[in-house]
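Give me structure tokens for this 129-residue protein.
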Amino acid sequence: MKAYRASILRFDDAGHAVFDEDGLLLIGPDANGRPVVRDVGSYQALAGNYPGVAVEHLPGRILAPGFVDMHVHFPQTDVIGAPAAGLLPWLEDYTFPHESRFVDPAYAAATAEFFLDELGRHGVTTALT
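Here you go.
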């Protein structure tokens, strides 16, 4: 088992947001050996229940559930924020010409890798198109 001490944003069983300023998150294997959350709450309330478990202290950090991006277009990664007078000019001048480059599998793979790295870097664990 592994424990992380940090500020923790989480949700209780009723779906209410809870913020543990000094929290403890314990990760351990389930019956199939997959890592799962075994316990979470305030450090003061939980630390004594897990003697001998290594704790990684992350001061100044917030642990939170992964974010869900409800609308993404990975082929548009390189044209996000390109200036245009509206949606149609943006699509015609930037998006459609750029998306034509995705016929090259190597280009598509490199862009997909960058896109997924950026999602992870920003805490997004689920993305829907």
